[in-house]
Automatic annotation (TrEMBL):
Annotated SUPFAM superfamilies: Ferredoxin reductase-like, C-terminal NADP-linked domain, Flavoproteins, Riboflavin synthase domain-like
UniProt pathway: Sulfur metabolism; hydrogen sulfide biosynthesis; hydrogen sulfide from sulfite (NADPH route): step 1/1
Organism this protein belongs to: SAR92 clade bacterium
Name of protein: Sulfite reductase [NADPH] flavoprotein alpha-component
InterPro entries on file: CysJ, CysJ-like_FAD-binding, FAD-bd_FR_type, Flavdoxin-like, Flavodoxin/NO_synth, Flavoprot_Pyr_Nucl_cyt_Rdtase, Flavoprotein-like_sf, FNR_nucleotide-bd
Cofactor annotation comment: Binds 1 FAD per subunit.
EC number(s) recorded for this UniProt protein: 1.8.1.2
Matches recorded under PANTHER family: NADPH OXIDOREDUCTASE A, NITRIC OXIDE SYNTHASE-RELATED
Gene3D superfamilies, per database record: 3.40.50.360, NADPH-cytochrome p450 Reductase, Chain A, domain 3, Nucleotide-binding domain of ferredoxin-NADP reductase (FNR) module, Translation factors
Length: 589
């Protein structure tokens, strides 16, 4: 310090001694401040000193996101901006693009990961996930990390992918900067708090590097929020499967006038639906509770009936709920269900069923405490806004299942198709899906959308028709029977006639002895599918995740192997490249 002060002969000695008593973070703050002053006064030399300081001291942060429908990506980008504005060097990358070996070059790794399937990583993270668990993963001694999980606690494997990333990073030698947070479906507040915690911890881990005029930390912003839904009006509803069908599929048209809402083909609509009045009454009577009984919820008083109708989850079960009710009612049977039968049990049972099994009834307050907050249900939008200004269309199945005690309905599908009429209100918002987008109009597209999986492709075709798109388009559609289940038959035939749809292949599974599905049609057209892919086609899949989407992916790999003359690993690599180029996109549920 003595040597350095000698060079400041024209600076007041008092000032220098005050400066030398400052702590590291204050010094950096001052350096940034001086750099700002210098910049204003066009003193280039001083500015460059400050810039070096920032470069030398900044912590390199990797913000990695594993996202299927864009939530984790949005959060990652927002945190990346916050870090940049605080003077850190943040690289925001998708797990699809990041090189595994490069992660060791960062002193801090932030991972924001959602979970999909049954506790599986999002599509774009499958390879990275596999690689980081392999011998190829680099050692990360001395590094720090923080993981934010996005999930849905009604799934058995809640935030599984985030948990696994957290574990493996620790195994590789990294230590947590802050504890992992597992966010439920209403993730915004928890995600924001986690990002603030990360920023706070960073400041004490190593002095924060402050630029001359740091921007305030961004607050995570989601334009069409769940919290501020629009009260839209149901303008039309039509059952589009014919009598005799084993499915009850509906087409809904909803008026968005005055909302200012806009959406793109590929987006989903989030619907806040009320619980069914009959179900609420059955639950109350099962517990012998009066609907008017007052209970506390989030610091406010409500009648239990109001809460059950509008605020609490009554149709989706989760393990924690079954366990809690088992504990409070001392039920062995419920414990057994949670431990060994959970996955199959939740398919056709709801809250009412576990209350029937509970040995001792819950009080109204216990019930309010034990249930999760109601969550919105997402539906892939089946219209193009350009073709239908101020409208959104939804294509959905009325979900219905049966058990020994009766019939159980899907929460929102029952509300939308049985509990409201044309003219009634629906609280909704747009859930953007930037990972399911049409390419430019000259590109060829292949769409695989059996059942209600047709929804986004109806929107795609409407859009392409308006665009007078030159690119070829090919639809694979399937359902049980031609006579009753050919959804949007007239429209699709019109598109075939006009050339908007270049090809259509249909798989009506039950119209012949042996079942035929879309993946069978794909395989039989394998050579042509391969040619389309080689000509740059974009391949889309929408619909059932557990069987259809998996089968379609396996078939696609078969086609690549067979017609592209590749072995299994090479075929997987080809598919990976398609994903990287956004030419393999899925909206599966
Ligand atoms: C088809 C599907 C399967 C899902 N599976 C799980 C799961 O097994 N565990 C979980 O915690 N969340 C699960 N979720 C919830 C998502 O992780 C959650 O919606 C998350 O916010 C999505 O983030 P993303 O948009 O970044 O992908 C699933 C969601 C969908 C649509």
């Amino acid at each position: 310090m003595q040597q350095a002060t000698a060079r400041f002969s024209n600076i007041d000695g008092d000032l220098l001694s005050k400066v030398s008593n400052l702590g590291p973070s204050e010094l950096l703050l001052l350096a940034g401040y001086c750099a700002g002053l210098a910049e204003n006064n066009s003193i280039a030399a001083t500015t460059s000193v400050a810039t070096n300081l920032v470069t030398d001291n900044a912590i390199k942060v990797l913000v990695l996101y594993a996202s299927q429908t864009g939530n984790a990506e949005t959060i990652a980008k927002s945190i990346g901006d916050d870090l940049d504005s605080k003077g850190y060097f943040a690289d925001v990358e998708s797990t699809l693009d990041v090189k595994l070996s490069s992660i060791k070059n960062y002193s801090l790794i932030l991972i924001i990961a959602s979970t999909h399937g049954e506790g599986e990583p999002p599509d774009d993270a499958i390879d990275f996930h596999e690689a980081i668990f392999s011998k190829k993963a680099p050692a990360l001694h001395g590094a720090k990390h923080a993981v934010l999980g996005l999930g849905d606690s009604t799934y058995e494997f809640f935030c599984q992918t985030a948990k696994e990333f957290d574990e493996v990073l620790i195994k590789l030698g990294s230590s947590p900067l802050v504890d992992r947070v597992d966010c439920d479906i209403d993730f915004e507040v928890d995600a924001k708090n986690w990002s603030l915690k990360v920023l706070e911890a960073l400041e004490t881990w190593q002095p924060a590097v402050v630029t001359a005029d740091p921007n305030p930390v961004n607050v995570l912003q989601f334009p069409h929020t769940k919290d501020k839904p629009f009260s839209a009006t149901l303008s039309g509803i039509q059952k589009i499967t014919a009598p005799g069908s084993i499915k009850n599929t509906y087409h809904l048209e909803v008026d968005l006038s005055g909302s200012g809402i806009s959406y793109q083909p590929g987006d989903s609509i989030g619907v806040w639906a009320e619980n069914d009045q009959d179900l609420v009454e059955e639950v109350l009577s099962e517990l012998d509770i009066l609907g008017s009984t007052e209970v506390q919820f989030k610091g406010e008083k409500y009648s239990i009936e109001y809460l059950l109708l509008h605020k609490l989850e009554m149709t989706l079960l989760n393990k924690g709920l079954i366990k809690e009710i088992a504990l409070s009612s001392n039920s062995q049977r419920l414990n057994q269900i949670a431990d060994t039968e959970y996955s199959s049990y939740i398919n056709n049972h709801q809250l009412l069923d576990i209350l029937k099994l509970a040995k001792s009834p819950l009080s109204a307050q216990q019930l309010a405490d034990v249930l999760k907050p109601l969550k919105p249900r997402l539906y892939s939008i089946s219209s193009s806004l350009d073709e239908n200004p101020d409208e959104v269309h939804i294509t959905l199945n009325h979900v219905e299942s049966e058990n020994d005690d009766g019939i159980r309905y899907g929460q929102a599908s029952h509300f939308l198709t049985h509990n409201i009429n044309v003219g009634d209100k629906i609280n909704l918002y747009v859930d953007q899906n930037n990972n399911f987008r049409l390419p430019s109009p000259e590109k060829p597209i292949i769409m695989v959308g059996p059942g209600t999986g047709i929804a986004p492709f109806r929107a795609f075709l409407q859009q392409r028709s308006l665009q007078e798109a030159k690119g070829q388009s090919w639809l694979f559609f399937g359902n049980p029977n031609f006579n009753s289940d050919f959804l949007y038959q007239t429209e699709l035939q019109k598109y075939v006639k006009s050339g908007v749809l270049s090809q259509i292949d249909l798989a009506f599974s039950r119209d012949q002895k042996s079942k035929i599905y879309v993946q069978d049609r794909l395989l039989s057209k394998g050579r042509e599918v391969w040619q389309w892919l080689e000509q740059g086609a974009y391949f889309y899949v929408c619909g059932d995740m557990s069987r259809m989407a998996k089968e379609v992916e396996n078939t696609l790999l078969e086609i690549i192997k067979l017609h592209g003359k590749r072995d299994h690993e090479e075929a997987k690599d080809y598919l990976k490249q398609l994903k990287k180029q956004s030419r393999y996109q899925r909206d599966v549920y």
